[in-house]
Specification:
The complex is a heterodimer. Chain A is of the alpha+beta class. Helices cover 59% and strands 12% of the residues of chain A. Classes of the chains: A alpha+beta, B mainly alpha.
Chain lengths: 348, 348
């Protein structure tokens, strides 16, 4: 059946060894790429006790409980092997050493002493949200999320505006210094931030943007990659369009606004996606600029959270899931544009 | 009547389409709002500066940010490298000449980096070298295999292509936490090993294992990006070449060595250059993953610069700047080498 379907798309008589190898590799790759994330999500629903269990189980489980007359709290349910060999579901009232006091929920007056080795917990699959609610109570997720949104949105808007303005000038005007500016832009493509960390930190401190979101937004606004990408695209826009607009009395700014920008929309879309990706995932620079925790972006916040709570994996896992959720949604709905955008521009 | 309902049905959009359109509209509205407001300033400006003058207005914002946050810091970096003390502000820093560079290069024996005064720097250098060599070669190889698999006639190519790309979008902190959770002592990886009859392995505690996994997670997280570029390169190879090879009776293997690989070389150079530059700057995934440990086995150059300049008790900006300078030199050499190699292969 499956083979028939696959063959139809191949237009071949039968699958050869290379086809099998390809599909095997791709399926293994799918498992390797998605598996860890799925494992993270499943784990994030497990309570702390379940997380420290070895070997771990795939799905999150929770012990069933039952309300018993005469007890305020619900009691945990166990399957107990009775002395006569039958199994019965009993609730545990209390436990002393290796002996547990069990009650039959249907008959709460009778106490049965049971060795703890003769009982197993009654469990059911349960996706608990406790890790998420507890995590949000301890980890200022919404604040960090807000900071990240502020940084991402404003840096992206500024990037689009400044980069497209510069690209317009560099592609459509003849002016003194143009080639120098272009050369400087291209050469800074190869200067990563990590090489100039200290002096940039000085500049930020002198301006007074240390511990200020502006210190992350503004330096990132002028990306050489963006200028380069947009300029290459704008070169393909015919000059005659601009000339006829000028004859009609349009100002240069109007031309930029109403001719260049709409025509450069595909390139702007690619840059938008990249800018969102860059700024949302930025780590090193925010780590240096932000030291007050209420200003942390989500990445810096998550990193310091995992440093504080070394062993409380239940909360860390839940917060990690919340962090990867927005970008996963973006991926799910825009993946076609993202992948084709990268393939055509060759940048990240 | 029926026609109208049909039209209404076609026009009805899914909630996701409405949401993504709303987001797009939001950005466009803000963008156009800013631009229209600015026309109030721009029009009088053009009357005074003339058309050519406007070009400078267009490049100005981008150039300003560029100058302040990239070009000026590049120059300042030299100043820091040749001055000492623990003050950030340049006026408080005494000139020390080559002292910082001498500190880095003062070694008792040039064959043993443990004998150097700044032995951490050299450990970071050797760790980075080890990382670069293995990460780049493994990643480029795997990306090539994946691109070749995706370039075959397969079903669901779009799906598989995005599968391999998905980890690229995840933030480095998230990637680090996902794998930390899987590789911890009682984690999924050890559970798999135990279930296959093995012993638990100390993945993140043992120095060699930590180095292996650091390389693994960075390949995992970045491979998809390079796969896409290589895939675009493969798809740009004209079909006639393959037809000619088939007419000549070439086997698949011969076609790969004789047609695919030579024609893919320009793309391979781009991929190599980009991945090398990125590998030299490895930091983001590793810092939350191992923190440079165990000991200093996964301490890389950028982390050395970061901790020397920002997170250590005494902030040795001079030393960090000198190290950045050496790293920049390294990147520059790589770029020049690659460009030269790329050019000579074009001629051949």
């Amino acid at each position: 059946m499956i083979e028939e379907f696959i063959l139809r798309t191949h237009g071949k008589r039968r699958l050869d060894f290379a086809d099998y190898a390809t599909y095997l590799y791709l399926l293994f790759g799918t498992f390797l790429m998605f598996g860890p994330v799925i494992w993270l999500v499943l784990s994030s629903f497990k309570p702390q006790a379940e997380l420290s269990r070895f070997p771990p189980r795939l799905l999150p489980y929770r012990q069933e409980t039952v309300m018993v007359e005469g007890y305020d709290e619900p009691l945990p349910l166990f399957n107990v092997t009775m002395p006569d060999g039958t199994t019965q579901q009993l609730a545990q009232a209390r436990r002393v050493g290796i002996e547990a006091q069990m009650i039959d929920p249907a008959n709460p007056t009778e106490m049965l002493p049971v060795n703890i080795n003769e009982r197993t917990a009654v469990e059911a699959v349960y996706f608990g949200l406790e890790n998420y609610t507890d995590g949000i109570a301890r980890f200022n997720f919404l604040q960090y999320f807000r900071n990240s949104i502020v940084v991402t949105v404003s840096a992206t808007i500024l990037t689009l505006l400044f980069n497209s303005m510069a690209a317009f000038a560099l592609s459509k005007y003849q002016f003194r210094g143009r080639d120098t500016i272009l050369l400087l832009t291209i050469s800074t493509l190869m200067v990563p931030l990590s090489v100039i960390l200290i002096p940039v930190f000085l500049v930020i401190t002198e301006i007074g943007w240390n511990n200020n979101l502006l210190g992350i937004i503004i330096p990132a606004a002028a990306t050489p990659t963006g200028v380069f990408l947009l300029r290459q695209y704008m070169l393909t826009i015919p000059d005659e369009l601009l000339d006829s607009a000028r004859i009609d009395g349009a100002s240069e700014w109007r031309i930029y606004l109403q001719i260049i920008l709409p025509l450069a929309r595909p390139a702007l879309a690619v840059l938008t996606i990249f800018s969102i990706m860059w700024r949302w995932n930025d780590f090193l620079w925010p780590l240096i600029v932000l030291s007050r925790s209420e200003l942390f972006t989500i990445q810096v916040g998550l990193n310091s959270f995992q440093g504080e709570l070394q062993t409380q994996w239940n909360l860390i896992l839940a917060m990690t899931v919340l962090t990867l959720l927005p970008i996963t949604l973006v991926f799910a709905f825009l993946q076609r544009y993202i992948t084709s955008g990268i393939a055509t521009t060759g940048m990240k | 009547m029926t026609q109208n309902t049909l039209k209404a049905k076609q026009r009805r959009l899914s909630p996701w389409q409405i949401l993504s359109q709303a987001i797009a509209n939001f950005f466009t509205t803000i963008f156009h709002g800013i631009i229209n407001l600015m026309d109030l300033i721009m029009h009088p400006l053009q009357d005074r500066l003339g058309v050519r003058g406007m070009a400078y207005v267009f490049v100005l914002p981008n150039l300003l940010i560029f100058g302040i946050f990239i070009l000026l810091p590049m120059l300042l970096n030299f100043y820091y490298a040749f001055t000492g003390g623990t003050n950030l502000f340049p006026q408080d820093r005494p000139f020390v000449g080559m002292e910082n560079i001498n500190t880095i290069f003062s070694c008792e024996s040039i064959f043993d980096h443990n004998s150097c005064r700044e032995d951490l720097f050299w450990r970071a250098v050797f760790n980075t070298l080890f990382f670069v060599v293995f990460q780049v070669s493994i990643m480029v190889f795997m990306a090539l295999i994946t691109a070749l698999a995706l370039n075959r006639q397969i079903i669901a190519r779009g799906f598989f292509r995005s599968v391999f790309f998905y980890p690229v979008l995840l933030s480095p902190v998230v990637v680090a936490l996902i794998w930390k959770w899987i590789l911890q002592q009682d984690g999924l990886m050890n559970a798999i090993i135990v279930s296959l009859g093995g012993e638990k392995l100390p993945f993140l505690i043992n120095a060699q294992w930590a180095q292996v996994w650091v390389i693994f997670i960075s390949v995992w997280a970045q491979m998809g990006f390079f796969t896409l570029i290589l895939l675009a390169g493969l798809q740009a190879i004209p079909g006639e070449f393959y037809e000619a090879a088939a007419i000549d009776g070439a086997t698949g293997w011969q076609t790969f060595w004789g047609v695919t690989l030579p024609l893919l070389m320009p793309t391979m150079f781009v991929v190599l250059l980009l991945s090398l530059i990125r590998a030299v700057q490895v930091f983001d995934q590793v810092f939350p993953f191992t923190g440079g440990g165990p000991g200093t086995t996964t301490l890389y150059m950028v982390q050395y610069i970061y901790s020397t300049g920002f997170s250590n008790q005494t902030k040795e900006y001079g030393l960090a700047a000198a190290a950045s300078l050496l790293m920049a030199l390294c990147l520059l050499m790589l770029t020049v080498l690659q460009l030269r190699a790329g050019r000579s292969s074009d001629i051949a």
